[in-house]
Each structure stands twice: as structure tokens, then as C-alpha cells.
Design brief:
An 8-stranded mixed β-sheet has the order 7-6-5-4-2-3-1-8. The protein folds into 2 domains: 3-170 and 180-207, Cytidine Deaminase, domain 2; 210-261. The longest helix is centred in the last third of the chain and has 49 residues, at 211-259. It contains 5 helices and 8 strands; from the N terminus they run E-H-E-E-H-E-H-E-E-E-E-H-H. It is α/β, with parallel strands linked by helices. It is extended and about 85 Å long.
């Protein structure tokens, strides 16, 4: 049986987290992308070749609903017309799942979410779909730093399993192997932006141009990010110190008032 894996870019995941942190309530929506099977062949001394099949879900875009329970009712029945309205100009076959952002909850699917997931698979005639759950864990007292937990689930014979999520970012920590190109993004804005600036990075034969400049830009971004993190840490330590000073002064004032006759 193929092992499922979810791949998402740091930009898409950041947009989901940003939407959740700046919202006042739970949010849910549809996930667009491409699911495909990849064949990996490894060769070892003991065995000529070992074929490994991996089912990869490439998340390229998300569409949030205006309200909860917008495309399904109280018992979990999916309204396909509401799904089409949410998708607008996007295609139904591009839907590879849906997501939910919950507050003050654990990383587990509820019974209703499981029912909706199964009925969404039936309504869209897509047996390969995923469910992504995002929940905030904690934030600093000043509210400047948030920690978000995320997980992806899929069902096999109505048995829901947790599948790994790989986030593609500027710097990949995994070992450099044969990297496969991600699936093409179906978003019109993405295609417009890439077509506008592709000539700056690719030559007429399709090869990368000025790779060293791109790497230098990436290093500069990392340095700026580290510098900003150090400044943020210093500011939070300063705030913590000021809060301790305020608490100390308040305690002294209370003690002084209690000593007065």
C-alpha cells in the first residue's frame, strides 16, 4: 500500500496560520492542489532494486469559507452547490481536501469532521482526500510570538490515520537527494507573477540564471531574519524586566500601606 505524504510550501502554511491568528473564531475551507503517486527505486548490495510507492499530496492553495458549516449541514451532508459557489472559478477536480482551524482543542478529528470528510469524498468522487487541522498551542505573554500545531489526516476504509507533513522553505534541512519538482500551481495570480519575473531567473533554454545571486539573496534574508529575532528577544526580555520592576514596586507600596497606622 502506498504511503501518503503531504507537501506544502512555507507561504501557503504561513497564510493559513496568519488567517487563524488574526481571526476571532474558528475557520474552515477547501484545499486545492494535486495528488499523485510517485515511484522511488533504491538499489542495495543485498537486493537489486526495491520499489517504493509514495502517495504525495501537493497543497498549492486554500479557499476559506465565509462562515462555519457553509458547505454541509448539521448531520454532515455535503451541499455540492455550496462547494461550487466556494470554488468560484476553480475546478472541482483540483480539490484534494479541506481544512479546519480550531481553538482550545487537541490534534484529533471530531466525529462530525470524519462524517463530513467521507461525504465530501463521495460528493466530489475523489477517494484520495486529506483533512488538515490547525490548532494554536500557546503564545508569549506579550502576544508577539505564537506557536501553531498542524496535522494532516486521511482515511483508509473509514479508518483515519495521521500522515506526515513536509514544509518546503528557502532552506531545506533534508539531505540533498534527487529532488522532484512540485506540482504546478493552479492559481492565476501565481502564474501571472511567475511569468512576469521568470525571465530574470531563467534563460531561453530553461536553465537557471544567476544562481549565485539567488543564493546570496537567500543568505542575506536569513541574516536579516536572525537579526530581527535577536532584537525581538531583547525587547521581550526588556518587557519582562519592566514587568518584574512594576510588580516589585506594587509589593513595596502594599507593604508600606500596611505599616501605616
Amino acid at each position: 500500500m502506498a504511503e501518503p505524504t503531504v507537501r506544502v510550501s512555507g507561504i501557503v502554511l504561513s497564510s493559513l496560520v496568519f488567517q487563524h491568528v488574526n481571526g476571532d473564531s474558528d475557520v474552515e475551507g477547501l484545499i486545492l492542489g494535486e495528488s499523485k503517486f510517485e515511484e522511488q527505486i533504491t538499489i542495495s548490495d543485498s537486493q537489486a532494486d526495491n520499489i517504493h510507492i509514495e502517495e504525495v499530496y501537493n497543497i498549492q492553495k486554500h479557499i476559506s469559507c465565509l462562515k462555519l458549516n457553509e458547505f454541509y449541514d448539521a448531520v454532515g451532508d455535503v451541499n455540492i452547490d455550496a462547494v461550487k459557489k466556494i470554488l468560484a472559478d476553480n475546478k472541482e477536480e483540483d480539490v484534494i481536501g479541506w481544512y479546519r482551524q480550531r481553538r482550545n482543542s487537541e490534534q484529533q478529528m471530531t466525529f462530525r469532521e470524519k462524517v463530513v470528510h467521507e461525504k465530501l469524498k463521495t460528493s466530489l468522487c475523489n477517494p484520495h482526500m486529506i483533512f488538515v487541522l490547525l490548532t494554536p498551542s500557546r503564545s508569549t505573554p506579550t502576544g508577539s510570538t505564537h506557536k501553531m500545531e498542524y496535522a494532516a489526516f486521511t482515511s483508509r476504509s473509514r479508518l483515519f490515520v495521521n500522515i506526515p507533513v513536509l514544509v518546503s522553505n528557502l532552506g531545506l534541512l533534508e539531505s540533498p537527494a534527487y529532488w522532484k519538482a512540485s506540482a504546478p500551481c493552479s492559481a492565476g495570480g501565481y502564474r501571472l507573477a511567475t511569468s512576469r519575473y521568470s525571465s530574470n531567473f531563467f534563460s531561453s533554454n530553461g536553465l537557471l540564471r544567476d544562481v549565485n545571486d539567488v543564493n546570496a539573496m537567500s543568505d542575506a534574508v536569513q541574516e536579516e531574519l536572525q537579526r530581527a529575532c535577536r532584537k525581538l528577544e531583547e525587547s521581550e526580555r526588556l518587557v519582562e524586566s519592566l514587568q518584574n520592576d512594576v510588580l516589585t514596586l506594587r509589593r513595596k507600596i502594599r507593604e508600606k500601606k500596611s505599616e501605616e497606622p
